[in-house]
Amino acid sequence: MKLFYQLMLGFLLIIFSSITIIGYSSTSFYTEQAYNQSYNRLEGYAESLEQIVLSHKNNDGELDVGFLDKLQIVMQGEDTTLRIFNKSNHLVYPHSPMQWKLPKEYFNKLKKGKVIRIKNDHQNAQLTFSDHEAYTSVLVPWFEKGKMIGVIWIGSRVQNVEDVIVHERHNLLTALIITAVIAIMLSFGISYFISQRIRKLSRATKKVAQGNYDIQISHHELDELDELARNFNFMVRSLKRTAEEITAQEKRRDQFMADAAHEMRTPLTTINGLLEGLKYRAIPQESVPQSIDLMQSETKRLIRLVNENLDYERIRSNKVALVKTEFNAYPVLHNLLTQMSQKAKAKNDKLKLIAPKKLPTYGDKDRVTQILVNLVQNALQFTQDGQITITGKRIEHATQISIKDTGIGMSKEQSKFIFERFYKADPSRVKLGSGESGLGLAIVMSLIKQHGGNIEVESELGEGSTFTVTLYDKNYENKKES
């Protein structure tokens, strides 16, 4: 069943349930009210008649029947009927050949001063005074000087009360019908409005499923559906970013595969050519040692490429156990200059170290060395005829090491992705065959995260880059400088 019909059905159930309850309650109230008004009117008559009748007794002290006849004529104008019983429970007015008496249980209650209300005397065989019409009546005791001297039964036709009730029911029914019509119209409008908003969400969802991530739904922050629309918009924006990132990752992966295939193809081709030369004795004997050295060098390149991938996967999945201690980072930085001096000389770069002789650092010494080697190699890779400055210093609860180069630099867009796997800031400037796989900075980021530290990069295109590593002291990991 469609949502529109479900909403309409729900509204209709509520409307008709409410109308039934209201109708029943109102009818019961009107009925009770009508009878109570009749009882109060009759009791008022009884109290007034008591004063009049008691003032017109005969010489024997009994009720004056002649006067009661006259009184009955007056009361007929009020559409009421009288029956009067004396203190001995005998009907004294009107005259009747039948010896009418009130039931003993009722008479005993009346002697105690209680008023008895009778809704319909045809429903009570003991108190039926007319075979033709039903009466609503009351039995009221009359007292004089504390003693009961008689009982009056005064009644009005039930039809009079029922006419009032029927009239009220008619008015109520008319009101409920009008209310139901208006409620149904409002329910239709509300159901249509809600279902249309949900249809709009449904159509938008289909478009997203078809790959359209530019769809957005307008909302006004009024209710849960607006909140759902806002969350939907947020989800679509997130999906769009994710799709763009996946596309970028795919491009970088494809580029990496191309680079890796090229890097592998080059040493493999060299090794294969040399092996064929050795096999067919095409290489002079004096060149054989040089050929073997070349094959060994190319084999090491292949091993390094494979190891970098394996190392990254181990680090990324937290399978590398860090042995963190406090050590002096200055010797590590000094040794780094010596280790990289040949590579720097090959690119006509200068290496400069600015750091105190004592630089306490907390971390895994070998992995910290790996971080710094990768960062300096990255700086050398993109710097020609320039300078790489390594700076070490202490800050509050941490050691900070910066590697600044004067190389090609990066744009802000490139800076967003440099720590991702396979990414190369400028593939066109990377010399193929150098062994650079685009994993160095990804390894750096993973190791720094495991240390509980952080790394920041500042770069300007054509001006160079600065990588700043912060390694926090013991028990201060993951806490940034305030």
From TrEMBL:
Any one GO molecular-function label of the UniProt entry: phosphorelay sensor kinase activity
Subcellular location(s) of the protein: Membrane
Q: Where is the Histidine kinase domain?
A: 259-475
Signal sequence, renumbered to the chain: none
Instruction: Name the UniProt key words of this record, in alphabetical order.
Output: Kinase, Membrane, Phosphoprotein, Transferase, Transmembrane, Transmembrane helix, Two-component regulatory system
Record-annotated membrane-spanning stretches: 7-26, 172-194
* Enzyme Commission number, as recorded: 2.7.13.3
Catalytic function, reaction form: ATP + protein L-histidine = ADP + protein N-phospho-L-histidine
Q: Which GO terms describe its cellular component?
A: plasma membrane
One Pfam family here: HATPase_c
Is Phosphoprotein among the key words of this record?
A: yes
Q: Where is the HAMP domain?
A: 192-244
Enzyme's top EC category = transferase
Against PANTHER family, the record matches this protein to: OSMOSENSING HISTIDINE PROTEIN KINASE SLN1 (PTHR43047:SF72), TWO-COMPONENT HISTIDINE PROTEIN KINASE (PTHR43047)
- The identity of this protein, by name, is histidine kinase
Which species expresses this protein natively?
Lactobacillus rodentium
